[in-house]
Amino acid sequence: MQPTNLGEVDLALYDVIIVGARVAGAPTAMLLAKHGHRVLVLDRGSFPSDAVSTHYIHQAGLVQLQKWGLLDEVVAAGTPAIRLMNYRHGDIDLIGFADPIEGIDAVYCPRRTVLDEILVNAARRAGAEVVEQFTVTDLVFGESGEVLGVRGREGDGEVRELRARLVIGADGTHSQVAKRVGAELYNVRPAAGFIYYSYFSGVDDWGLHHKTGFNHRWFGSWPTNDGLTMVATICALDQLKEFRTDPETAFQAVIDDVEPAMGAQFRDTARRAEPLRPMRYPDNYYRRAHGPGWALVGDAGYHKDPITGWGITDAFLHAELLADRAHEGLAGERAMADALEEYVKIRDEISAGVYDFTTVMASMELPPFFDAVLRAIGKTPHWTNKMLGLIAGGVEDHEIFSPDNLERIYEDAGFPEAKRIYDPTA
């Protein structure tokens, strides 16, 4: 579908302007347009185009795509289905797969060139106006400090002023919207590592791996589009300076260190299709995500370490949550401030467990409680798949971590009484 040109559209007041048209912005636009609102989406890029990403969509995120009628498009684009997870942390193995969630029995890891274009086109079909290559340079404020719109330019054109009842920042960790409104951070936890990744042929038999070694090193692999496998490494931040001196050698060394047999195969058969891409991500954080005339969604308002691959899934879940609450405010069903406050409250509640788990795993060093529980879980297929279901978003925390269930896990594994730990703070 062709992008909208601002010279061709009526520039009267919009209901919503969304800054950013990727995995958070495009679904928010689609859903608000389906509610009947006039939505303008501005993105400094053009589509299809790539983005730094884990690519991974958990089953909970695929449920959203299925609900929106878009999962079939992801599959039709040649995105491989993955139905086995090989997880290792040190000498703990979890090999299996989560039970189906609303009929979805696989995960998919599409290239962002594929996924983002599907989402943007869905927003257009729903009635949203999408303007590509538009750079937002500032916000428009009213006398009381409320946000009234945005300023920016399309391509090399003149600066334009566009007005809306609500401006949504879906423009990532370095969000201009968040910066202009002074959105404060909270619950900040320092970043633990950095990533290098690329796409490879010659390792088609690998499937999905998520493996942490003993030296604060991790590597993962997952099949993606075009017959390629994405392979990534994560190392602790104190290894970054040395890694940068020779990234290709260091990349190979991580795989050798974590899984020597796979390292040998990688050296012999893997063929890199694109340059290695570095990702030094910011600290984990929540941002104040609403105020008079504005809201934030996706990484603009909440970001965590990519090691658990929950970024895209959370973007989908929070996009729908924001769209539903913003619609209530726009339709006059409740005060917009109350609706957006509830959006943030629910967002923080439903993301807290993933946030805590992710920041623990990002350290690549398990606390005694998690070490004991995961060792016991790995002894039985039932609890292995249950744990993978929690990671996939289909199992609630208490189904594993309640005292009664911890007791069952340890009993089923025949775990020695002296090694059982029940207190997460131990």
TrEMBL record:
Residues 14-357 form the FAD-binding domain. Pfam families: FAD_binding_3. InterPro entries: FAD-bd, FAD/NAD-bd_sf, Geranylgeranyl_reductase. It comes from the Bacteria. This is Dehydrogenase (Flavoprotein). It comes from Actinokineospora diospyrosa.
